[in-house]
Each structure stands twice: as structure tokens, then as C-alpha cells.
Specification:
Largest sheet: 5 strands, parallel
GO molecular function: ATP binding
GO biological process, one term: defense response
Domain Disease resistance N-terminal: 2-58
Shape: globular
Structural class: alpha/beta
Strand order of the largest sheet: 2-3-4-1-5
CATH superfamily of the largest domain: Winged helix-like DNA-binding domain superfamily/Winged helix DNA-binding domain
CATH topology of the largest domain: Arc Repressor Mutant, subunit A
Number of strands: 12
Mean pLDDT: 79
Number of domains: 4
CATH architecture of the largest domain: Orthogonal Bundle
Protein name: Disease resistance RPP13-like protein 1
Distance between the termini: 29 Å
Pfam families: NB-ARC, Rx_N, WHD_DRP
Strand content: 5-15%
């Protein structure tokens, strides 16, 4: 029965990100059932260990060792043991009943088997074109630096072809930068041939080659095989300087990459291929040095927001919106995509109340499916994660925004929570955990701290994404005023009591009152007490009584 669920989980996870509420509800129930099954097994193992410990103690005292864990000391049926056994049997039957209902519901959801992390909704991302944005804000320094990489003369280099990878998180403006460069007048005079291809999800060497050849030669290539296409492309590019842009590349297979490059090796010295990607692993197969595109400044984000909302260069003609506009721009966290989307939401709206509604919207606390346009690129990044990384990333929803963590710290948490294969030797588990972490860094899910290079953090929008996926399984709260012990929570929702598995509390001072909510969480697995600043050397202040109250109230 479990296998019938497992083979459709990838497709279900993709569809729930695509605003399918029935699938999301079903997936939430599957997740809860899996957690409850693990909890029941843990309880059984704990009970068995306690019984075994008691039996060994009795044996050491000359008493007969019990052969059956649910029998009394003398081998007869013990009332407490029978009660415990009956309780386990009841729980197993209840879980079995829930499992059957879940399988029945699955049949009505049209889920595809053996989906590999790419569903129909991921293809809804509009294909990029070579046409640039009508207005471009900031990036003068970055544009000049990349332009130099493209047309600058490199001393002591005889390379005919160079790769220029532009790397950055989703929504940071990689495609816009590539469009800007592609359409720069200097390019037309420097390169004899130009072509732009939006690669996106599937790295199809035949399709990419055909597209480039058609753009350059205007030939009809329908029905032609890869050999014919590459021979023609090689002939046309021979001893000519060219520029090709491969936008939104995900492919990490070296063989496919080298196959694509074959005809380009015939070009003249100085030929370039720009690739845009979120994944550093993509860059590694090219052997080129990446150009990392960072976030926009707040001022540039503000101007970008004004342009898309008010068709103005800035807020000078709308002074009543200037303050709230800048606050909204600050929340964009330097992502042009977000500023553009929010500008579209506020298009031609000059009422201050409408702008303040956006500023104070709950989406800034937890991104939900209702605000799907805010995070489409980041959701696409998540969809492309292997299944073993999805759980590790989603767990990070337990961290508050801007919390900085060390690699080893997070890896040990993953191991403690059972996200890595416990059957491996300790060294292998640690190695796997570090590999998982490094892979998330390479995919821009974690970024290095600007303050302490040994630490990492999640961009706010990625933290929102993790929270929207984790939903009620992760709970984060903080104490706003320690002296009054008033807890400010990400979600004051009773369902957390039934659903929360992982939780964190952020404060330097911990009181029994501030932790009262956690004692009511029926299935809580772990609680982390964190300081507001992860580098706070003073640590957390908590009395022995508070610790005692906490431990005695928690279920486990």
C-alpha cells in the first residue's frame, strides 16, 4: 500500500505548489500519517527497551527473564502489559484505516506515477526572449564587468570559445542582465552571429542545436537529425565570432553539455556562450568561473517598483506614496522579480490605503498559495530539488528569518531528525549531510553570511517558501517584550497544537509562561531555543525551574 503512495509523491508535491488544494490536503494527510507511523514505532521501541531493561534487572537478581515483552514478570499475562499491547494494536488499526482512506482518495486526484520533480505547472514559466526590459535600473557596474568578459581581450589566451556563466538565485535578474547585454549595440559590431535560446527544464541537445541553427541561418530544419544539424551549424560558424545565450539552464550532465558544444569549437577566437542558471553545479561542468549576480540596492528596487506601478522613474510625482513605496521595496530584499510583480499588483493605484494593504499583507510573514505570484521562480527551484533535499530544505522553516547557522550545526540537526540514512556508518552519514548542505548552497537556497563567512542563512523569500511548504509542521515564535512575556507568533492557529512537529523559540530570556504554548503541542518532536542573533556570545538565560517545567510538560 505504501508503494502506491510513494510512486506519486513527486507529482503530488508539484501539484500542491501549483495551487491544487485537493492535492495539498491529501499530501498533508500523507505527511501526518508518515509522522504518526514513525512516532508509533518510536513509542514501541521505547516501550520494548524499557521492558527489556526491567527483564535484565530481574534476571540479574536471580529472577526468570521474560521471553515476551507484554507478559508479566512471572510469565503470566500482566494487566498493564496487556493494556499497553491493546493500545498499540488500536493505534495500528487506526493508522491502517487512515492509510486505506488515503489510497482511496488518491484514485480521484489524477496523480502521475514516477514523476521526477517536474510537473505541468513548472512549464507555465514564460519562456524568455532576447528582447530586453523596456527600463533597466541599476546594475551599471555589473553590466560593465560582464561586458568586459564578453568583448575584452584576454592576454595569453588562444581559446576560441569562452563560457560566461551568470549565476544567482531565482528572481535576481539574470535573464534581464543577459537580455541587456545581448542587445547592446557593441555586440552587433563585435560578433558576426548571435542566437538566444531559453533552455529551461529539459536540456534537449537536438532542440537547442536546431533552434540556434534556425536563428543563425534561417534554414528549415524540421525532420533533420542531430548529426545533420551539428554539421550545418559547424560549417556556418567556422572562423566566425559568435555570441550564444543559453537562458535558464538546469542540466548537470557533462556528456550532454560536451555534445552540445561540438559545433561551436569551429568558431573564431573570442566567441562566447552566456549561460544563466541558479545552480553552481551547472557551472562546474562548463569549467568556467561564474559571475555571481547579487541583489539590487533598495533605491534601485524602489525605482523599479515605481516604474511598474506608476510608470514613473521614481516617486517624485507621488510624494504621498514615497514612504510606503520604499518600505515595500525593502521587503523585496533586492529581487527585481518581486519588485516587478508587486508593481504589477499596484498598477495605476494611487490610493495610499491600497499600498498599505500590500505592505501589511500576511504574505510577508508566511507566503501562502494565495500569493503564488510572489514566489514562482523560487517554487520552481524547489521543484527541481531531488526528493532527499526537499525534506532537508523544508525543515529549515523552523528557523526565523535572518537566522545564521553553521553547516555542521544544520547537518547534525538533519541527522538527529532522521533525514539521512541511519544505516550508514557515522562518517558516511556526516559526509552525506555535508554533501546535501553544499548542494543546497550551490543551488542558492543558502547564502554565505556577509558578517561571518563560516555561517550561512536563507534569503527571506526562501524562508517564506520553506514555511509555505512546511505549513503547520513547523512553528516559530519570538518574545517581543521579555518583561511582560508576550509571545509574538508567526501563526496563532489552534491547528499547530495538532500538527506541529518542529518548533523554535527566539529570545535571550526564557520563561515558563513564554513556553506554555509548546506544552500543548501533542506531536512535537523537537524544540530549539535560539537567540535573536545567532552569534550572540551571551547565550540563552533560563532557570532550572523553567527547564524542569518544559521537560515535564513535553510529551517525549
Amino acid at each position: 500500500m505504501l508503494e502506491t503512495i510513494n510512486i506519486v509523491l513527486d507529482d503530488a508535491e508539484d501539484k500542491q505548489l501549483g495551487e491544487n488544494r485537493l492535492v495539498k490536503s491529501w499530501l498533508d494527510d500523507v505527511r501526518d500519517l508518515a509522522y504518526d507511523m514513525e512516532d508509533l514505532l518510536d513509542e514501541f521501541m521505547i516501550e520494548a527497551a524499557q521492558v527489556k531493561s526491567g527483564a535484565e534487572s530481574s534476571t540479574s537478581k536471580g529472577q526468570k527473564k521474560r521471553l515476551f515483552p507484554f507478559f508479566g514478570q512471572d510469565g503470566s499475562s500482566g494487566s498493564n502489559s496487556n493494556l499497553c499491547l491493546n493500545l498499540f494494536e488500536t493505534k495500528v488499526q487506526e493508522i491502517n484505516g487512515r492509510l486505506k482512506k488515503i489510497i482511496t482518495r488518491k484514485a480521484h486526484l489524477s496523480l502521475r506515477e514516477n514523476a521526477v520533480g517536474i510537473s505541468n505547472h513548472t512549464n507555465k514559466r514564460l519562456q524568455s526572449t532576447s528582447l530586453p526590459e523596456t527600463r533597466f535600473f541599476g546594475r551599471e557596474k555589473e553590466e560593465a564587468e560582464i561586458l568586459e568578459l564578453l568583448i575584452g581581450e584576454v592576454e595569453n589566451s588562444d581559446a576560441r570559445l569562452s563560457i560566461v556563466p551568470i549565476v544567482g538565485m531565482g528572481g535576481v535578474g539574470k535573464t534581464a542582465m543577459a537580455q541587456r547585454l545581448y542587445n547592446d549595440p557593441k555586440m552587433s559590431s563585435y560578433f558576426e552571429r548571435k542566437a538566444w535560446v531559453c533552455v529551461s527544464d529539459v536540456f534537449d541537445v537536438l532542440h537547442i542545436t536546431k533552434t540556434i541553427l534556425q536563428l543563425i541561418t534561417r534554414l528549415s530544419c524540421e525532420g533533420k537529425d542531430l548529426n545533420w544539424l551539428q554539421v550545418k551549424l559547424k560549417d556556418d560558424l567556422s572562423e566566425k565570432k559568435f555570441l550564444v545565450v543559453l537562458d535558464d539552464v538546469w542540466n548537470e550532465k557533462y556528456g550532454e553539455w560536451t555534445s552540445l558544444l561540438k559545433p561551436f569549437e569551429a568558431g573564431a577566437k573570442g566567441s562566447k556562450i552566456i549561460i544563466t542558471t541558479r545552480n553552481h553545479s551547472v557551472v562546474s561542468i562548463t569549467g568556467a568561473s561564474p559571475y555571481s549576480l547579487k541583489e539590487l540596492s533598495v533605491d534601485n528596487c524602489t525605482d523599479l517598483l515605481a516604474y511598474h506601478a506608476l510608470e514613473a522613474r521614481n516617486f517624485e510625482r507621488h510624494p504621498h506614496l514615497q514612504i510606503v513605496g520604499k518600505k515595500i521595496a525593502e521587503k523585496c530584499r533586492g529581487l527585481p522579480l518581486t519588485a516587478k510583480i508587486l508593481g504589477g499588483l499596484l498598477r495605476n493605484k494611487e490610493n495610499l490605503d491600497e499600498w498599505e494593504d500590500i505592505l501589511n499583507n500576511r504574505m510577508w510573514d508566511v507566503a501562502s498559495a494565495k500569493n503564488d505570484e510572489v514566489l514562482p521562480a523560487l517554487k520552481l527551484s524547489y521543484v527541481h530539488l531531488p526528493s532527499y533535499l526537499k525534506r532537508c530544505f523544508t525543515y529549515c522553516a523552523v528557523f526565523p528569518k535572518d537566522y545564521e547557522f553553521e553547516r555542521d550545526e544544520l547537518v547534525l540537526l538533519w541527522i538527529t531528525e532522521g533525514f539521512l540514512d541511519g544505516r550508514k556508518a557515522k562518517e558516511n552519514i556526516l559526509r552525506s549531510g555535508k554533501k546535501y548542505f553544499d548542494e543546497l548552497v550551490s543551488r542558492s537556497f543558502f547564502q554565505q553570511s556577509n558578517i561571518d563567512t563560516s555561517k550561512f542563512l536563507m534569503h527571506d523569500l526562501l524562508n517564506d517558501l520553506a514555511k509555505s511548504i512546511a505549513d503547520k509542521t513547523c512553528f516559530t515564535s519570538r518574545e517581543s517584550r521579555v518583561e511582560e512575556s508576550q509571545v509574538v507568533s508567526d501563526e496563532n492557529d489552534a491547528t499547530f497544537k495538532e500538527k506541529a512537529r518542529y518548533a523554535s523559540f527566539v529570545s535571550r530570556y526564557v520563561t515558563s509562561k513564554s513556553l506554555r504554548a509548546y506544552a500543548t503541542m501533542k506531536v512535537l518532536r523537537s524544540l530549539m531555543l535560539l537567540t535573536i542573533q545567532s552569534n550572540d556570545k551571551k547565550g540563552i538565560f533560563m532557570s532550572g525551574k523553567v527547564l524542569h517545567d518544559l521537560l515535564t510538560n513535553l510529551k517525549y
